[in-house]
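Cross-posted from the bioinformatics board.
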Amino acid sequence: MSEAQRKPAVVLLSGGLDSATTLAIALDDGFACHAVSFDYGQRHSCELAAAARVAAAMGMCEHRIIKLDLSAEAGFAGSALTDDDIPVPKDRPAAGGIPPTYVPARNTIFLALALGYAEVIGALDIFIGVNAIDYSGYPDCRREFIMAFETMANFATAATDGGEQFIEIHAPLIDMTKAQIIRTGLALGVDYGLTHSCYDPSECGLACGRCDSCRLRLAGFAEAAAVDPLAYQSH
Amino acid sequence: MSEAQRKPAVVLLSGGLDSATTLAIALDDGFACHAVSFDYGQRHSCELAAAARVAAAMGMCEHRIIKLDLSAEAGFAGSALTDDDIPVPKDRPAAGGIPPTYVPARNTIFLALALGYAEVIGALDIFIGVNAIDYSGYPDCRREFIMAFETMANFATAATDGGEQFIEIHAPLIDMTKAQIIRTGLALGVDYGLTHSCYDPSECGLACGRCDSCRLRLAGFAEAAAVDPLAYQSH
């Protein structure tokens, strides 16, 4: 497919395993992808470098980092991902409610900004790599949330005013296990060595191997009978 | 009512006539108000000083400015409010579609951030001063949008996970004319001399009197048979 035939789409790209796979799916679906990442004061900001690496490695893809401040100082206290005073849980059992790494309304905020950006570039399609099987228990990763956001989005913008166009929120991973996501990505040629998943990396960006995100990732590679190309501090 | 009895609410406060009236209504309804304003690269950034003045003049009210970049450089090109290359329309007829002052998905983005902030401070109530009668034609000022956002919000956060709590988006002005809004505010003691409505003020903050926002405001004061305490460049 030539560049000119591709419809534009906005793809949320954190730099992690799920969003890299989502980007590969969107490209495979024939979209010209505009990847967006968010610099929101996260302690694992090395994921932004991973996002840039992933976007650069895939063709047909533009990448933009949107800056916003969700730090404790800005009023968004209370998450282990943005507040250095709250430790990231390690070696946590698989099921255990909403963890302290939850960032209030994060996917709502990210999708809202993606929606505005989509309207600016003339895109009606937004991809997000949420999944509700092997996930950290965040409420804004569920299908009901994605569907309600899509409904809202179609009342929110000039692009859909008049009802002749429809904004679609794509969540292609939502019903996949982590192993299925990894197998899908490998089949599409994703280089998972470029990604970053850890919530609490070392200063040089080495994954901890023990936070929820590392544990889900490692279990997924094990189940997919594949080798995680990342190096870890321990696991 | 004592401070301790008041439930917390987040109130979107632009510094304009509508949001000042909304804040007065929320206070009169018995909420402890946490006003939030957005520094998003708007050309009429003097509205932020107005927001601070309005919040300071009302009791029982905390005020916070959240910074995010919706400028053309950040990828959000195309609105006369954030792009100096696009002029703000003047002397525009009342009915005329969605004007160039529209900022893509602005209310979605602002409400999303308000939702996250509400969750952090333990508020379930969010007030926004949209109105769908005397307004600029923006799609995200309509009741359908507000209702859809509320539905989405109740799937989005940990606060409502489990279904025992409910997030409410209050839009008390939605069916009021501008004159009704002004009469309501005056009855509640709002000092409209502290507010700022103009999309294209002079460098010293003087309202133009000719943009959509000034024209709606002036027509509202005329219909309410009240005097607008603001000074204008012309009208």
